[in-house]
Amino acid sequence: MKSIMVDMDDCITEGGYLYLINQYFKTNHKKEETSDFYMYDFIPDKEGFFNYFINNNLYDYSNLIPNTIEVLKYLNEKYKVYIGTAYIYNVIPELSGKIALYKHNYLIEKLPFIDPHNFIFINDKELLNCDIKIDDKIENLKNAKIKILFSAYHNKNLTKDFLQKNGIIRANNWLEIKDILDKLEEECE
Ligand SMILES: [Mg+2]
Questions:
Q1: 56-94, pLDDT tens digit by residue?
Q2: Angle between helix 174-188 and helix 68-78 axes, rounded to 10 deg
Q3: How remote is the CA of residue 84 from the centroid of ligand 1, in Å?
Q4: What span, in angstroms and rounded, lies between the C-alpha atoms of 100 and 121?
Q5: What is the pTM of this model?
Q6: Helix (H) or strand (E) holding 8
Q7: CATH of domain 3-14+63-188
Q8: How far is the CA of 12 from the centre of ligand 1 (A)?
Q9: How far is the CA of 6 from the centre of ligand 1 (A)?
Q10: What does the alpha-carbon distance between residue 145 and residue 141 come to, in Å, rounded to a whole number?
Q11: Residue 142 contacts by C-beta under 8 Å, 6 or more apart in sequence?
């Protein structure tokens, strides 16, 4: 059985981080306004914000990305599915343990069909030897045979040409991911 690593933030769930930024700064930013992964251009006071951030569970304000559950259930029957997700925030590494707990609880609640032994909290995902990787950050696709980039605000400007040169397939949503993997499987048969 082939293995798949699936990233959590901006692949399974999204929105909580920006929601907390807007709450703290009393702003109304939209993700389309930035291409910075950490949205630092929305965070004029990093120390103040991250001290607020860590004491609020961003996943209480996050939304599941459409079709995540149905497609992951489907893939979980055919592949070994691992969730590979980083939890250390660079501004507050020593306080980030709470994020691991927030993530764990969210995955348990929303994806009860995934074995919790398959939750991997990791920063350098290159260490994971999975056949297929699905992530919104290109660096995290290293060391996979099939690299699927989940479209997100910060990667929208990566060109087709660049992705093709690097052997990366872009997917805009979970239904596209299902199609890509089904087609690749047919080709292998
Ligand atoms: Mg991500």
A1: 999 999 999 999 999 999 999 999 999 999 999 999 999
A2: 20
A3: 9
A4: 7
A5: 0.96
A6: none
A7: 3.40.50.1000
A8: 8
A9: 9
A10: 9
A11: 125, 126
